[in-house]
Amino acid sequence: MVLPLLLIVTLAMVQVGLVVRDRLALADAARAGAREAAVTDDDGRIRAAVDRAAATLAGDRISIEVGRDGGRGQPVTVSLTYADSTSIPAVAWLFPSAMTLHAQTTMRQEFG
Prior knowledge:
three-stranded antiparallel beta sheet, alpha+beta, elongated, 44% helix, 26% strand
Protein backbone atom coordinates (compact mmCIF):
# COMPACT_ATOMS: atom_id res chain seq x y z
CA MET A 1 0.00 0.00 0.00
CA VAL A 2 2.77 2.45 0.86
CA LEU A 3 5.18 1.37 -1.88
CA PRO A 4 3.00 2.47 -4.86
CA LEU A 5 2.40 5.85 -3.23
CA LEU A 6 6.11 6.27 -2.55
CA LEU A 7 6.89 5.36 -6.16
CA ILE A 8 4.40 7.93 -7.51
CA VAL A 9 5.80 10.66 -5.24
CA THR A 10 9.35 9.81 -6.31
CA LEU A 11 8.47 9.85 -10.01
CA ALA A 12 6.62 13.16 -9.58
CA MET A 13 9.71 14.66 -7.96
CA VAL A 14 11.82 13.42 -10.89
CA GLN A 15 9.34 15.05 -13.32
CA VAL A 16 9.55 18.35 -11.44
CA GLY A 17 13.35 18.09 -11.62
CA LEU A 18 13.15 17.61 -15.40
CA VAL A 19 10.97 20.71 -15.77
CA VAL A 20 13.42 22.73 -13.66
CA ARG A 21 16.30 21.45 -15.81
CA ASP A 22 14.46 22.57 -18.96
CA ARG A 23 13.74 25.98 -17.42
CA LEU A 24 17.43 26.47 -16.57
CA ALA A 25 18.46 25.40 -20.08
CA LEU A 26 15.97 27.90 -21.51
CA ALA A 27 17.36 30.71 -19.32
CA ASP A 28 20.89 29.87 -20.49
CA ALA A 29 19.70 29.88 -24.11
CA ALA A 30 18.09 33.30 -23.64
CA ARG A 31 21.38 34.61 -22.25
CA ALA A 32 23.32 33.17 -25.19
CA GLY A 33 20.81 34.61 -27.65
CA ALA A 34 20.95 38.05 -26.02
CA ARG A 35 24.75 37.99 -26.11
CA GLU A 36 24.67 37.20 -29.82
CA ALA A 37 21.96 39.84 -30.43
CA ALA A 38 24.16 42.39 -28.66
CA VAL A 39 26.91 41.97 -31.25
CA THR A 40 24.91 41.29 -34.44
CA ASP A 41 21.47 41.78 -35.95
CA ASP A 42 21.61 38.52 -37.94
CA ASP A 43 18.57 36.47 -36.87
CA GLY A 44 20.19 33.26 -38.12
CA ARG A 45 23.19 33.71 -35.82
CA ILE A 46 20.91 34.52 -32.89
CA ARG A 47 18.85 31.38 -33.54
CA ALA A 48 22.04 29.29 -33.85
CA ALA A 49 23.31 30.62 -30.50
CA VAL A 50 19.99 29.75 -28.84
CA ASP A 51 20.00 26.27 -30.39
CA ARG A 52 23.58 25.59 -29.25
CA ALA A 53 22.82 26.67 -25.69
CA ALA A 54 19.54 24.73 -25.59
CA ALA A 55 20.93 21.47 -26.95
CA THR A 56 18.89 19.41 -24.45
CA LEU A 57 15.61 21.00 -25.60
CA ALA A 58 13.61 20.35 -28.77
CA GLY A 59 14.63 23.26 -30.99
CA ASP A 60 11.38 23.22 -32.97
CA ARG A 61 9.41 24.02 -29.79
CA ILE A 62 11.41 27.16 -28.94
CA SER A 63 10.01 30.47 -30.18
CA ILE A 64 12.29 33.51 -30.18
CA GLU A 65 11.44 37.21 -30.05
CA VAL A 66 14.14 39.87 -30.34
CA GLY A 67 13.29 43.41 -29.26
CA ARG A 68 15.63 46.32 -29.95
CA ASP A 69 15.46 49.93 -28.76
CA GLY A 70 17.73 51.93 -31.05
CA GLY A 71 21.43 51.47 -31.71
CA ARG A 72 24.71 51.17 -29.83
CA GLY A 73 24.35 51.29 -26.05
CA GLN A 74 20.60 50.68 -26.16
CA PRO A 75 19.02 47.50 -24.81
CA VAL A 76 18.27 44.40 -26.84
CA THR A 77 15.95 41.81 -25.31
CA VAL A 78 15.67 38.15 -26.29
CA SER A 79 12.51 36.39 -25.10
CA LEU A 80 12.12 32.64 -25.44
CA THR A 81 9.02 30.50 -25.05
CA TYR A 82 9.21 26.71 -24.86
CA ALA A 83 6.37 24.19 -24.90
CA ASP A 84 7.50 21.55 -22.41
CA SER A 85 5.75 18.20 -22.10
CA THR A 86 5.60 15.53 -19.44
CA SER A 87 8.49 13.08 -19.78
CA ILE A 88 7.37 10.39 -17.34
CA PRO A 89 4.08 8.77 -18.46
CA ALA A 90 3.37 7.19 -15.07
CA VAL A 91 2.81 10.60 -13.48
CA ALA A 92 1.47 12.48 -16.52
CA TRP A 93 -1.97 12.64 -14.90
CA LEU A 94 -0.50 14.84 -12.12
CA PHE A 95 0.78 17.51 -14.50
CA PRO A 96 -0.76 19.63 -17.27
CA SER A 97 -0.48 18.11 -20.73
CA ALA A 98 1.68 21.05 -21.88
CA MET A 99 3.64 23.52 -19.81
CA THR A 100 4.83 26.79 -21.31
CA LEU A 101 8.19 27.97 -20.04
CA HIS A 102 9.45 31.54 -20.55
CA ALA A 103 12.90 33.14 -20.31
CA GLN A 104 14.03 36.65 -21.11
CA THR A 105 17.41 38.38 -21.06
CA THR A 106 18.36 41.99 -21.84
CA MET A 107 21.83 43.25 -22.79
CA ARG A 108 23.27 46.42 -24.30
CA GLN A 109 23.93 46.53 -28.04
CA GLU A 110 27.59 46.81 -28.97
CA PHE A 111 27.05 47.85 -32.59
CA GLY A 112 24.96 50.25 -34.58
